[in-house]
Amino acid sequence: MRGGAAVIVSAMTLTSVSAGGVGGFSCVGGAGSLSCAGQWGAGGDPNVRVVPQALRDDDRAEALAREHKWLALCQPVIQRDQYGVARYHYAARGCEYGVGAD
After folding, report:
1. pTM exceeding 0.85
2. Cα–Cα distances in Å, from 79 out to 51, 75, 82, 92?
3. Whole-number pLDDT of residue 72
4. Is the separation of the CB atoms in 100 and 69 below 8 Å?
5. Strand extents, DSSP E, the chain
6. pLDDT tens digits, 9-31
7. Is residue 28 within 8 Å of 35, Cβ to Cβ?
8. Contact 27, 8 (CB under 8 A)
């Protein structure tokens, strides 16, 4: 039984690496009791984030105008609740979801 599980582990590991991602498959147990688990994911460092391209001048001006419009409508204020946790409060309904930014 153990020899068969070792062959499966090797085959799964080689298959996942050649597919361009990272994978793992392992089995634990002995005669009469065997438990296996597998996991697959994209390759690369999970802590690396893709930085978006810099905005052009006209895009930056449009984003700034949209932000000023949202601030004027929503008027965000930070207030502490009864537990001392800082929470945002807004003047208009839906501002916590970005409504009014159009």
Report:
1. no
2. 32, 13, 10, 16
3. 94
4. yes
5. 21-30, 33-42, 77-80, 86-89
6. 444 444 444 456 778 888 888 77
7. yes
8. yes
pLDDT at 65 over 60: yes
**Structure tokens that stand for 100 in this block:** 């009014």
pLDDT of residue 100: 62
The Cα–Cα gap between 101 and 72 comes to: 10
57: pLDDT strictly greater than 60: yes
Q: How far is CA 11 from CA 50, 59, 78, 98, 101, in A?
A: 33, 50, 56, 49, 52
- What tokens appear for 1 in the block? 């039984």
Whether 76 and 86 have beta carbons less than 8 Å apart is answered as no
The two three-digit tokens of residue 5, written as one number: 């599980």
Both structure tokens of 34: 């065997």
Comparing CA positions, the residue from 26, 22, 50, 28 lying closest to residue 38 is: 26
For residue 1, the one-letter residue type is M
Q: Residue type at 99?
A: V
